[in-house]
Design brief:
The complex is a heterodimer.
Chain A: E1 5-9, H1 18-29, E2 33-36, H2 43-52, E3 57-62, H3 67-80, E4 87-92, H4 99-104, E5 109-111, H5 117-127
Parallel strand pairs in A: 1-2, 1-3, 3-4, 4-5
Chain B: H1 2-6, H2 37-41, H3 57-60, E1 64-69, H4 74-86, E2 91-95, H5 98-101, H6 125-131, E3 141-145, H7 150-164, E4 172-175, H8 180-186, H9 193-210, E5 214-215, E6 217-220, H10 222-226, H11 231-251, H12 256-259, E7 263-269, H13 273-294, H14 300-303, E8 307-311, H15 323-337, E9 342-344, H16 357-372, H17 387-410, H18 413-418, H19 421-438, H20 466-481, H21 484-499, H22 505-513, H23 518-529
Parallel strand pairs in B: 1-2, 1-9, 2-3, 3-4, 4-5, 6-7, 7-8, 8-9
Classes of the chains: A alpha/beta, B alpha/beta.
Chain lengths: ~130, ~550
């Protein structure tokens, strides 16, 4: 089986990228192929990267509070591109009250501050399916 | 075995600070044998100011209790400021939202979902007028955390002061205006490094004449630390940034003693108590020596490093959030024992959201308890002469000077940033720390030990999207009521000035007076200078 391919993206205007970079390295050390998009990605750019990179997983890092706008737009675009089987997870500052809405639109994993990296790795390994 | 008898058992094989620095079991007079009191430490108020810049410490004047706040619309934030001032806060500190920090109007596509979320939205002079409505700028000091568009936001503040009848020569406060740490750590840059440095030196020159009590820059280690740097990296990169700004000012033809006294610093107050105290003490010593020896500054005020500090946001946990009150109190105490000139204490709920009014008040109370109940403000630098603290202070200085040498060899900080050097160092430290937490070599209470199942949720501040619509409506109104011909003329003049070496503050002030928006002013400069894009370092 080929390695899982993960696009780690930092959407919106925020530049706080410690979490995105740390998780990118942790996933890489756990044997995944990781593509880090860099900063200020629009949902269009992220969906485009997922298509081009043949991603199995998209990990969004959002700390600014913009998740309720970015996630629905991204999920729509993924559907339109036929990428609904890509596992989408979000890490960052996400208030509890927003979690049900995000799950409803198809975000599978939501990781709040303090989540061990191993937990995220295990979640991805259990839920992602390498595309053939 | 004999060796066992000689080495009594300890809890761990090695003991290290949160930054990974090894710590001995005991420090003795031998540990400080090479340190000369008059040369390396000296009394408070005397060169090199290791023990503080004021002879009287906090017996003369307490530190400024300055709580960073801002969210939603200028109306909402104005109300929070009045609450903070009413609760005994002694200075204001403005948190702007991401569109403002990035020089984008609320109607730009990248502003989607971000207006008023991480801070207050200020698009034009009209918003700044509302933000300080009923607060007299001649009577308070204001710190504004703004970097790429610092000159524009400062110009808005100056125009509000002017309209209130406050004298520019007397108003006091700080703009962060520190672009180097944006490239290094926080990443809220707009323009490439060199034109960015030019606006900063323009602000230095403008303020030396027009606003001599204003702190033109707050050279910031805070964000460098939050991005994962060690205490030493925070110290070294921040001070080296400070030297870079001083050098650019001198290269632009300014007299070092004419602008350096208006430079200030901003450090993180992290969790390792003594390491932090040593960091602040070393910072004052390094700056004093560099200014006197490397820059030939003659004015004592150029030698004295003044700094704000803020407790470490990155240390706050979403788990068992009340523990954050204790963390913050200890971090604040280290900043006070290190001689901070002003302080922000974080609120217990900030790993979850922006703070509620109650949480923000408790954070301020924490400072007041340290100031008025603990007794630590009765004596200057009580840890001076501690074998451990003096050794650690010296080690911090030595380590920073090693980094300076490496950066100097690259040609300076701008060149080091262009090569990704500080960015790589920080990413490495951030990953190493996270691994230590995963392996439980570093314990974080409530996160990887002493975990509690089924924690009850706490009440948090939820910022909805109504601010965005209100700011969009206001922007439309500003555009409909201002003289758009005048706006275009001032923007044309700004573009033209950007192509020369003329000081940019006067054309920016004119554009602000005409109610040009922050997006329009930044776009004018984007047309001339382009935008910076980094190569991400993972």
């Amino acid at each position: 089986m080929r390695k899982l391919r993960v696009v780690i993206a930092k959407p919106g205007l925020d530049g706080h990228d410690r979490g995105a970079k740390v998780i990118a390295r942790a996933l890489r050390d756990a044997g995944m192929e990781v593509i880090y998009t860099g900063l200020r990605q629009t949902p269009e750019m992220i969906a485009g990267a997922a298509l081009q990179e043949d991603a199995d997983v998209i990990g969004l890092s959002i700390l600014s509070g913009a998740h309720n706008h970015i996630a629905p737009r991204l999920m729509e675009l993924l559907k339109a591109k036929g990428l609904d089987d890509v596992l989408v997870v979000i890490g960052g500052i996400i208030p509890d009250v927003d979690i049900p809405k995000l799950k409803e639109i198809g975000v599978k994993g939501i990781f709040q501050p303090g989540t061990p990296m191993q937990e995220i790795i295990d979640f991805i390994n259990a839920n992602a399916r390498a595309r053939v | 075995m004999k060796t066992v008898a000689e080495k009594p058992s300890e809890r761990a094989a090695t003991f290290t600070t949160i930054s990974g620095r090894p710590i001995d079991r005991l420090y003795t007079p031998q540990s400080v044998a090479g340190i000369n009191y008059a040369r390396d430490v000296n009394d408070p108020g005397a060169f090199p100011y290791t023990r503080g810049i004021h002879a009287t410490g906090y017996r003369g004047k307490l530190w400024t209790m300055r709580q960073f706040a801002g969210f939603g619309t200028p109306e909402e934030t104005n109300e929070r400021y009045k609450t903070l001032l009413g609760a005994g806060g002694t200075g204001l500190s403005v948190a702007f939202d991401l569109p403002t920090l990035m020089g984008r109007d609320p109607d730009h596509e990248l502003s989607l979902g971000e207006v008023g979320k991480c801070g207050v939205n200020v698009t034009s002079l009209a918003d700044m007028e509302t933000l300080f409505d009923g607060i007299h700028l001649g009577d308070i000091t204001t710190s504004m955390t703004i970097n790429s568009p610092a000159a524009m936001i400062f110009a808005m503040y100056l125009v509000v002061a002017e309209k209130q009848g406050a004298d520019w020569k007397k108003i006091s406060g700080t703009i962060q205006n520190d672009i180097l740490k944006e490239f290094i750590a926080q990443k809220e840059y707009i323009f490439p490094p060199r034109p960015s440095m030019r606006i900063i030196t323009d602000v230095f020159a403008f303020c030396a004449n027009e606003a001599p009590k204003w702190n033109t820059i707050s050279v910031s280690g805070y964000h460098i630390r939050e991005a994962g740097a060690t205490a030493l990296q925070e110290l070294a990169f921040t001070l080296r940034d400070g030297l870079e700004y001083a050098q650019w000012g001198v290269d632009a033809g300014l007299d070092v003693d004419a602008f350096v006294p208006q430079m200030s610093f901003f450090f993180n107050a992290h969790s390792d108590f003594f390491e932090e105290i040593a960091k602040y003490r070393a910072a004052r010593k390094i700056w004093a020596r560099m200014m006197r020896e490397r820059f030939g500054a003659k004015n004592e005020r150029s030698w004295k490093l003044r700094f704000h500090s803020q407790t470490a946001g990155v240390s706050l946990t979403a788990q068992q959030p009340y523990n954050n009150v204790v963390r913050t109190a200890l971090q604040a105490l280290s900043a006070v024992l290190g001689g901070t000139n002003s302080l922000h204490t974080n609120s217990l709920d900030e790993a979850l959201a922006l703070p509620t009014a109650d949480a923000a008040t408790l954070a301020l109370r924490t400072q007041q308890i340290i100031a008025h109940e603990s007794g630590v403000s009765n004596v200057v630098d009580p840890l001076g002469g501690s074998y451990f603290v003096e050794r650690l202070t010296q080690d911090m200085e030595d380590g920073a000077l090693d980094y300076f040498e490496q950066i100097d060899r690259m040609g300076g900080m701008v060149e080091a940033i262009e090569r990704g050097f500080p960015q790589r160092e920080i990413a490495e430290s951030a990953y190493r720390f996270q691994q230590a937490v995963e392996r439980r070599e570093k314990i974080i209470v409530g996160v990887n030990d002493f975990v509690q199942a089924d924690e009850p949720p706490i009440e948090i501040l939820y910022i909805d999207d109504s601010a965005s619509q209100r700011q969009l409506d206001k922007l439309a109104k500003v555009r409909a009521t201002r003289d758009n011909g005048a706006v275009q003329r001032t923007l044309d003049r700004l573009r033209a000035a950007a192509r020369t070496t003329e000081n940019l503050m006067p054309p920016i002030l004119d554009a602000v007076r005409a109610y040009a928006t922050i997006g329009e002013m930044c776009d004018a400069l984007r047309e001339v200078w382009g935008e910076y894009e980094e190569v991400p370092v993972v």
